Amino acid sequence: MTPLQWVVLSAYARALSDTHPHRAPLERALSGRAPSPAGQRVALELARQSGMVEGDRITAQGREAARAALRRLGIPAKGNA
Questions:
Q1: Could you tell me the pTM of the whole model?
Q2: C-alpha distances out from residue 73 to 14, 27, 33, 77, Å
Q3: Torsion of CA 81, 29, 58, 77, to 10 degrees
Q4: Contact, 25 vs 75, CB < 8 A?
Q5: What is the per-residue pLDDT across 43-78, written as a single tens digit (0 to 9) for each?
Q6: In sequence order, what are the beta bridge partners of 6?
């Protein structure tokens, strides 16, 4: 998982309710894969510049990117945030 994928998927996970059935599997997939703090800053700025996140919220473009990544991780993406 690239730092950019981690940032977008993290924003996506935050958009899901705490009780959403796909939040826990997504958080498990992200666990232990966080890039270094410097990598997080660079990836967050790249995600912002590319229109995938605005502030700390995921955008429609970011949701599409996250759903594609979720499918590759084997986590159902239909009907998510």
A1: 0.86
A2: 18, 12, 13, 10
A3: -30
A4: yes
A5: 999 999 999 999 889 999 999 999 998 888 888 766
A6: none
